[in-house]
Amino acid sequence: MNYLKTGMLLAALTAFFLAIGYMIGGQGGMMIALLVAAGMNLFAYWNSDKMVLSMYGAQQVDQHSAPEFYGIVAQLASRAGLPMPKVFVIEDDQPNAFATGRNPENASVAATTGLLRMLNRDEIAGVMAHELAHVRNRDTLIMTVTATIAGAIGMLANMAMFMGHSSSNDERGGNPLGLVGGLIMMIVAPLAASLVQMAISRTREYSADRLGAQISGNPAALASALRKIEYYAHQVTNVQAERNPATAHMFIINPLAGERMDNLFSTHPKTDNRVAALEDLAGEMGARGFQSDLDDEPWPTRTATPQPRTHEGAVRGWRRGSVPKSGPRRPWG
Predict the structure, then answer these.
(1) Which of 68, 123, 131, 230 is catalytic?
(2) Does the pTM of the predicted model rise above 0.70?
(3) In a domain, 56, yes or no
(4) Taking a C-beta distance cutoff of 8 angstroms, is the pair 250, 52 a contact?
(5) Is 279 annotated as catalytic?
(6) Residue 297, in any domain of the structure
(7) Is residue 93 a part of any domain in this protein?
(8) Which residues lie across from 89 on neighbouring strands?
(9) DSSP per-residue string spanning 53-105
(10) pLDDT at residue 190, rounded to an integer
(11) CB-based contacts of 306, cutoff 8 Å, min separation 6
(12) Residue pair 243/174 in contact by the 8 Å Cβ criterion
């Protein structure tokens, strides 16, 4: 059902794009809009992951520079039947994570240093399992293309303001709306595009939560992680996300300040609703303590109450010896 809804929403978003092109330039404008949409989608297909990772200054890590974090992702990918994705760390105090890439063979997952410091091992595994669920469901491509089209709609709507003076009687098919119509389109079109984009994002989060909990074997840990991330996300500003709000839907929890309503104006479902769904899943899986078999050591269920983890060793296994004496401590070495 989610895939049917997603297809309908993507079709609606494309229709918005073509309609705005027609309103700006008639049939010629609609054809130009179609070509632009195709070009942007093609570009996004091949380069979206590089663009987003570069935007956030992500640094790629491996089994030598971040042994525990890399090992967690490797074990989860194996359990999910996925190729090993590229693993990145983002220098940001806000705990958060996202996945990107056009397909499982070219996927990347990224976590902030805040997430690696503030969450414990089983919670980190729950978060990364959620991101790998997005990869397996191919959500990363869909959501990136959606963001690209939505951004293009905003661009066209802004153009409508400057082209609104074209005569609606222009025999060459100029802007049929005129100046007033152009102003209306400038306001309404980006809003409509954002609603569609956000709806697509929200339909994917519940599915990724469920599959991610199954991959990690620990719904309670993912629920605990969601609560902690939401708590700290509203205490710590993600500067890059605030500068690039079109990428907010990619994160496991909305990185922008003030987004808590579970409605069409939120890029993510309400965290309480997601936690409730995970609790239901835990019941379905059986009250077995949710021990993961990622390795021989059990990952016990943790409390869902957000608690700061400021002591050294909150995330174990990093190359601490290579951390410089001056400057912030970096979990990857």
Answers:
(1) 131
(2) yes
(3) yes
(4) yes
(5) no
(6) no
(7) yes
(8) 59, 111
(9) HHHTT-EEE-TTTSHHHHHHHHHHHHHHT-PPPEEEEE--SS--EEEE-SSGG
(10) 64
(11) 227, 228, 231, 232
(12) no
With tokens 């990224």, the residue in question is 110
The count of C-alpha atoms lying within 13 angstroms of the C-alpha of 295, restricted to the half-sphere facing its C-beta, is 12
Of residues 77, 86, 76, 82, the one with CA closest to residue 122: 76
CA distances from 201 to 56, 159, 229, 267 (A): 20, 27, 18, 6
For residue 224, what pLDDT is reported? 96
179 C-beta neighbours (distance < 10 Å), count: 15
pLDDT in tens, 160-197: 666 554 444 444 445 555 555 556 666 666 666 666 66
Instruction: Examine residue 267 and state whether it is found in any structural domain, yes or no.
Output: yes
Average pLDDT of adjacent 10-residue blocks, the chain of 333 residues? 62 73 72 74 77 93 96 96 97 96 93 96 97 92 69 66 50 53 63 64 85 95 96 90 82 76 62 93 70 44 41 38 36 46
Model pLDDT, residue 9 = 65
Q: Would you say how long the chain is, in residues?
A: 333
Name residues whose C-beta falls within 8 Å of residue 261's C-beta, 6 or more positions apart in sequence: 270
Return the structure tokens found at 94. 């806000």
User: How many structural domains compose the chain?
Assistant: 1
The two three-digit tokens of residue 164, written as one number:
């609104």
Return the number of other C-beta atoms located less than 10 Å from residue 162's C-beta.
11
Question: Residue 12 belongs to what domain range?
Answer: 2-287
